[in-house]
Amino acid sequence: MAEILNANPTIRNASDLPTRRRRTSSPSTQKQSLGLFASSIPSSTYYDPFEPASTSSESESEDDVVEPIDEQEIYDLISTISDPEHPLSLGSLAVVNLPDIHLKPLSRDLQTVLVEITPTITHCSLATVIGLGVRVRLEQALPPRFRVDVRIKEGTHSTGDQVNKQLGDKERVAAALENEQLMTVLRKMLETCQ
Question: Which of 38, 78, 90, 108 has a beta carbon 3.0–4.6 Å from 34's, enabling a disulfide?
Answer without folding.
Answer: 38
